[in-house]
Design brief:
0% strand, mainly alpha
C-alpha cells in the first residue's frame, strides 16, 4: 500500500519548477548567443552562405564564357 508523503510531493513540485526554470534559462542563453553572433557577423561585414553561392555561380559562368572566348581567339575564330 502506498501512502502520499507531503514532503516528497513538495520536493517533486520544486524539482519540476527547477527543471522548467533551467530549460527557460537555456533557451534564453541560446537566443542571446545567437543574437551576439549575428551582431558580430554584421560588424565584420560577413556574407551569408546563400549570397556567396549565388556570386560563385555567376563568376563560374563568366569564367567559362571568357575561357571559350580566349579559345576562340587563339584558334582564329570568333566566339558565339
Amino acid at each position: 500500500m502506498q501512502t502520499k508523503n507531503p514532503l516528497f510531493e513538495d520536493l517533486a513540485k520544486a524539482m519540476e519548477g527547477a527543471v522548467g526554470l533551467a530549460q527557460a534559462a537555456g533557451e534564453e542563453a541560446r537566443g542571446m548567443v545567437r543574437a551576439q553572433g549575428d551582431r558580430l557577423a554584421a560588424e565584420l561585414d560577413l556574407v551569408r552562405r546563400d549570397e556567396l553561392d549565388a556570386v560563385k555561380a555567376v563568376l563560374t559562368a563568366e569564367i567559362a564564357a571568357l575561357r571559350a572566348e580566349i579559345a576562340a581567339l587563339r584558334s582564329g575564330t570568333t566566339a558565339p
